[in-house]
Automatic annotation (TrEMBL):
Lineage, opening ranks: Eukaryota, Metazoa, Chordata, Craniata, Vertebrata
Family annotation (PROSITE patterns): GUANYLATE_KINASE_1, GUANYLATE_KINASE_2
Domain Guanylate kinase-like stretches: 38-253
Domain of life according to the entry: Eukaryota
Name of the molecule in the record: Guanylate kinase-like domain-containing protein
SUPFAM superfamilies given in the database record: P-loop containing nucleoside triphosphate hydrolases
Amino acid sequence: MGGKKKKKMMYLTTKNAEFDRHELLIYEEVAKMPPFRRKTLVLIGAQGVGRRSLKNKLLVSDPQRYGTTVPYTSRKPKVDEKDGQMYLFMSRSEMESDIKNGRFLEHGEYDGNLYGTKINSIHEVVETGKVCILDVNPQALKILRTAEFLPYVVFIEAPDFEVLKAMNRSAIEAGVVTKQLTNFQSQLQNQDVTLLRKNVLTVKVPALCMDSELKRTVEESARIQRAYGHYFDLTIINDNLENAFRKLKGALEKQGVEQQWVPVSWVF
């Protein structure tokens, strides 16, 4: 579409050699450890599967225990924006320098501006005594899955298509979901005006677009699970947000009372 913004994502390749070698292994040596709390909670999943909703619910449920990072951006702050509230602002040259020097966990460019999460930001949250919740691309596991970050990796799996479709419909009716509608509106604006005058098309085009988006979510979820499943500590099918949240919180609480299996490399 002519007016659609392009998003280009890039990921760090430094520190990945050891991880990539492990990816070739069928088995990974692990050790049983006494109960302990992980430093980070890493939520992995397809776009639109509900990771951010679960992350926000955890942050609100126990702000003394959970924290998260504030992303950096090279764009100029808006009039009502305060540095450090939603974003931390820095110049593009500074950000490019930090990216080159491996200071970002992940980064990307959107509409001509850089965005990213600094590795130091994770340490800052952990140093306050909180578990740092990260909602990241699965490739970030190449950096995170070490003794430095002691991650608890949770895969938020998409339910089957019909369930996801019903959930999405309910969310839209409740006014919760706006992303899909915004996408539909931008796509419709690029359609021929004569098509928009036909009621049947103004209804069917968004429905078809929505189905396509949801199918991509289910397919992406399956691809992530195939590629990274052996690194997940827990898998939760998000077919109901409240149920998924209870399962996630319950699993996190067990860390303080149950023994845990971790990679031997974290111990020795």
